[in-house]
Structures are given as structure tokens and as C-alpha cells.
Write a structure and sequence with these properties.
- Keywords: Transit peptide.
- It holds the Pfam family GCV_T.
- This protein folds into three domains: about 140 residues, 2-Layer Sandwich (Gyrase A, domain 2); about 80 residues, Alpha-Beta Plaits, CATH 3.30.70.1400; about 80 residues, Aminomethyltransferase beta-barrel domains (Elongation Factor Tu (Ef-tu), domain 3, Beta Barrel).
- It is of the alpha+beta class and about 350 residues long.
- Helix 5 packs across helix 6.
- The strands form four sheets. The chain has a six-stranded mixed β-sheet with strand order 10-11-12-9-3-13. A six-stranded antiparallel barrel has the order 14-17-16-15-18-19.
Length: about 350
Amino acid sequence: MEPLSLHFLHEEAGARFIDVGGREAVASHGNDADAYRAAREAVALHDASYREVLRITGEDRVSFLHGMVTQEVNNLPAGSATYAAMLTAKGAMVADARILRREADLVLDMEPGMGPKVREFLEKYLISEDAELHEATGDQGLLRLLGPRTGAVLAAALGGDFPPLAHQATRAATLAGQDVLLVGNTVLEPHGVDVWVPRAGLEAVWRALTQAGAGQGLQPLGFETLELLRVEAGVPRYGQDMVATTIPLEANLTAAIAYNKGCYIGQEVIARATFRGHMNRKLTGLLLGESAAAPGTELRLGEKKVGWLTSVVRSSTQGQYVALGYVHKDSLEPGTELLLAQGPATVKVAALPFKG
């Protein structure tokens, strides 16, 4: 397990650690209820430097990546980001990534453990193009701010006003003596901002944000609480809710697909599925009551298997266990009751995101 750069800092604060994709993450700082409340009502700070980073350089970097992913890259403005999937020729997912286009390179921000797989996939198709892949996880780290007081914390840390940052928009800044890049990330809540930091400057920036947030109710937020927020928002995570057999449309990733771009690997499958108008199964929300079922548990309608669970969390907002899972198209209507495995416990299909 690759340790966090700030392991010592989190350890001093009494953190508990877990392995996520072969990399260390803070599971909890022992303040889960306070951290959750801060992410909803104040501001929370998450160390996401376990995520993996790949850089692409060279004259053909943009056109090469454009043909490898589901999203538009050719017309992506420098200084902005987008979310995309990489697919096999059969339309199944290799991985997902946030793509950041900078003046001199492209940066792929990926789930932990996915760097080698994505690099192997891209190198397979890199033949005559002037493009080069660089492992960059050791160079960059990511800190994530969530909550309505995010702007106030950044304003205090930067020493000036901080206008709201739209989703996937970027802004360069100097924070604690470090050149950082701020990226709007409103997937989990409307105010989120990711802070890209040179890895050597992670400690300085973490301490500066913590100090700036002292008067704003800032709480450090661990991976387990981040997962709760993710599931409540209905956002799938590769390796948990999406795997190598998942087709993006099954996981509701329409925002990751540009339907008017040129050819990319797997496009024919996506086009056929889109023309057909439905998938046989889709990711949906599920209300489990007090059933703490494990991911992978089957969902049945009578004797027929109609789906399975992928992520399960205890939601205080919902007052019960809630889950993400795949359900057959004929059983997707919210309120539909399904059996959990062999019964007798039942679950109810719910629309995403969960109402909070």
C-alpha cells in the first residue's frame, strides 16, 4: 500500500487508514458526524492525494486522446476540465478519468490503482502519433474542499475575494507559497473545489487551508464519509459501481459522452444503445431500511434475479441504509419493491440523487 504524503500529519490527528486501490487513504479522523455536517452546512477538507495522475505531452496529444475517450477533447479549451470514459471495442469500460487540458499537456485524474491500466490501454493504441505518457502521481496531489463556506476559506487562504468557480472551470493561484490550480468540482455538492498542489507543497497547503477554515467550522473529512456523500448524490465510482463489464449508459454516464464528436474506441456500441433508447439494466438508488446488505447482494422480483447492490451506506439523512445498484429496466420505477437476496427483507427502488 502506497502511503499518503501526509500520513504523519493525519496520524498525529488520530486518523484511521484504509487501502483504496493499493494506495493509502484516511478512512476517518474520528469525527464522521461532524465532517458530514460540515460538508453539508459549513466546509470540509479531504486529502485525495491517493488519486493517480497521468500526463500526456507531444504535438499530437490532443487528437490522440480525443480518439481514445468518450468525451470531446479537441475543442476543450485550455484551462478547463471534463469527465470521460475509456472503452473497449465492445463498449465496456476500461476506466473513467477527469481530463484537464493545460497549455503544454493533458492531465488525467484517475481512481487509485488505475494508472497502470490506463497507461497500458493508451500505449496499445499509441503507434505513430507524437504523444508521450508520463506517470505524474508523484508530482501532483489533490485536496478537496466541500461545503457552502468553501469560498470563504479560499478567500481567507488566498488573501482576497474568491468568486464561485463553475464545475470543471479552473483558476490558477498561489497558496501558502505554492503554485496551485483550483478546479470546480460540484458533483457531490454545489460549492466543491479541488486544489491541485505540487506534492512537495501538500503539507503547507493543507495547514494553510486548515488555518483559514478555523473560523468557518472546517472539519477534516475521511474516505468513508466521502463515500456516504457520493452515494447520497448518486455518483458511481469505478471499481465499486463500475467495472470492466459496465457500459457507461448503464451507469448513467451520459454527461461523459459527446454524441457529436468523431470516432473513438467503443463508439459503435454507444451509438447503437443510444439509438435503441434503453439499456437492459441501469444504476439506481435503493432504500434498504435496516438491512445492512453487502455489495454484490442479489435483488429479486419473485424468483427472478433483477439486479444487485454495488455501494451500501448508512444515511442519517434518510434514516436508513441506502444503496446504489443495478436493476433491470422493467423494475426501475421508484417505489418498486424487490427482495433482498432470498428474502424476507425487501428494498425499494428510489430515484437518484436521494432526497436530502
